[in-house]
Amino acid sequence: MAGLNGPLRLQASSTTSSASFASRIVLLLTALPLALAAFAFMLQWRGEINDPSSAWPSDRQTFPGMDNSPIGSSASSTFSSVFRSSSSSSSSDCIEILSRSSSGSLPYYHGSSYDSDHNLRPRICITSSTSAGLEQILPWLYYHKVIGVSKFLLFVEGTAAKPDVSAVLESIPGVKVIYRTAKLEDKQAKSRIWNETWLSNFFYKPCNYELFVKQSLNMEMAIVMARDDGMDWIIHLDTDELLHPAGAQEYSLRQLLSDVPGNVDMVIFPNYESSIERDDIKDPFSEISMFKKNYDHLPKETYFGLYKEATRGNPNYFLTYGNGKSAARIQDHLRPNGAHRWHNYMKTPNEIKLEEAAVLHYTYSKFSDLTSRRNRCGCKPTKEDSKRCFMLEFDRTSIIRGLRDSGIFTATIAQSKQKLISMENLQNNSVAGQNSMKDDLLQHSKSTSQESKATARKVLETGSNQDGAVPPLSPPGLGDILTET
Q1: What is the pLDDT of residue 293?
Q2: For this UniProt entry, which segments traverse the membrane (predicted)?
Q3: Where are the alpha helices (DSSP H) in 190-325?
Q4: Which residues is 177 bridged to in the sheet?
Q5: pLDDT surpassing 60 at residue 357
Q6: Which residues of 165-208 form beta strands (DSSP E)?
Q7: Percent of the chain scoring above 70 in pLDDT
Q8: 98: how many CB neighbours lie within 10 A of its CB?
Q9: Do residue 313 and residue 236 come from a single domain?
Q10: Same domain, yes or no, for 219 and 310?
Q11: Which domain holds residue 219?
């Protein structure tokens, strides 16, 4: 029996030993992950490991003024416990935010990028001579960035040249600020323009004429800068004007100009003029929604048939200019031809006029616009002096007469508040109330309704030649149709 039980005891011992080893392995495999998890928890609790999934984003973006608000203050205290943040935020919030240009994003649309791909074509440059403040320039800039403008060349003076304004402008990607310094004036004094005749009629005259020459000199410099930056198109635009790229497959100026045939040198945008809807406008770009269409975008019989109803006693159909603005393809020998057109020293540019796209001109949207223009030149309120200072009739009128007392401004507001009447009824009333001369004009316009649009636009194109710079021209009046006939 003793010999028989010996092998059995050995077999039972080996089985027990194997089971004990397996249980130890299972215990080790269970305890090891638990120990590692506990160790990691202790490290994170002590702050030695940052968990990316639980941390606040490091690119926190606040808007100017948030730090002074209850929400901004509470958010700031929360963020400061998670990552390092500067507590020196002050009134320079706007400059600090706009200065973060490395991402190529706009401050009002954090995370959105505009023109980050330099391979997008065509590349468009806008140049402007401005003395406006940020409340006008910033929305103007961002709007045109959205529709595809790549570069802005801003020739600044007045309010726009103040340090707190220019610092913000310089921090925006794609914006170059050029100050009107003595060095700039010395450089422009050597321009070939002074030795040529096409701009000579505007030399050495005050106010609007001086501005016109200054704009032309700035445009000449902008051509060189834009070409050095690899731009394809250049446009001169004021900061109270917005380009309206209607007619393209998408709402994009880049798309619109990419569809222009390669043999076209200049594209003309007819301008629409804002109509005053009320006398307490604060932000024209967001509050004004009504515009007068340009003569080029209206049927001829409608324009002349309703002329008196549209002018409401003002000197012209538009208060200011009516010959639009233009975009030029950047090429050799390009030069400005006044603030509204471009030209070429070696050839007559091949130009087209767009059928739908336009420049939206937010002119005289506030009464202060009238008084500021009247006061900035120092011209006497006489007919002779106003003609010496201003090119357009309405500007001259604003000098001679007190606009509020004369009723011009009030009449324009009253016009915009009238009920909208259908075009047919309004035209019938207009025809019925006209004298025999106007009836003859309507009859003439009907008989020539089949003529080409190019012929119909001859009146507006007056003065558009290489012999002289194209000044701001008023739209055609009733007398112009008689001249054409």
Answers
A1: 94
A2: 21-45
A3: 208-228, 253-258, 284-287, 300-305, 307-311
A4: 154
A5: yes
A6: 175-179
A7: 64
A8: 21
A9: no
A10: no
A11: 94-270+324-365
| 288 Cβ contact list (under 8 Å, min separation 6) | 274, 275, 277, 281, 362, 365
Q: What is the DSSP letter of 278?
A: -
Residue type, 156: V
> What is the length of the chain?
485
Task: Report if pTM > 0.85.
Answer: no
Q: How far is CA 321 from the centre of its chain?
A: 20
pLDDT at residue 350 above 80?
Answer: yes
**Strand pairing class (271-274; 358-361):** parallel
How many Å apart are CA 485 and CA 371, to the nearest integer?
Answer: 39
Cα–Cα dist 311/316, whole Å: 6
Q: Are residues 391 and 438 in the same domain?
A: yes
- Mention every residue, 6+ apart, whose C-beta is less than 8 A from residue 382: 400
Whether the CB-CB separation of 150 and 124 falls below 8 Å is answered with: yes
CA distance 243 to 233: 14
Question: What is the tens place of the pLDDT at every residue in 328-343?
Answer: 999 999 999 999 999 9
307, two tokens: 């002329």
- Cβ distance 90 to 81 under 8 Å? no
Residue with tokens 């012999």: 467
| d(C-alpha 349, C-alpha 352), whole Å | 10
- Are β-strands 291-292 and 271-274 bridged in parallel, bridged antiparallel, or unpaired? antiparallel
Task: Give a yes or no: residue 375 inside a domain.
Answer: yes
| Exposure string over 125-162, b if 16+ CB within 10 A, otherwise e | bbbbbbebebebbbbbbeebbbbbbbbbbbbbeebbbe
C-beta separation of 158 from 189 below 8 A: no
Largest CA distance in the chain: 147
In which element (H, E) is residue 271 found?
Answer: strand 271-274
% pLDDT > 90, the chain: 43
Average pLDDT of the chain to the nearest whole number: 75
Residues 350 and 222 in one domain: yes
Evaluate whether 294 touches 376 at the Cβ level (below 8 Å): no
Give the residues across from 125 on adjacent strands.
Answer: 151, 234
Q: Say whether both 237 and 116 belong to one domain.
A: yes
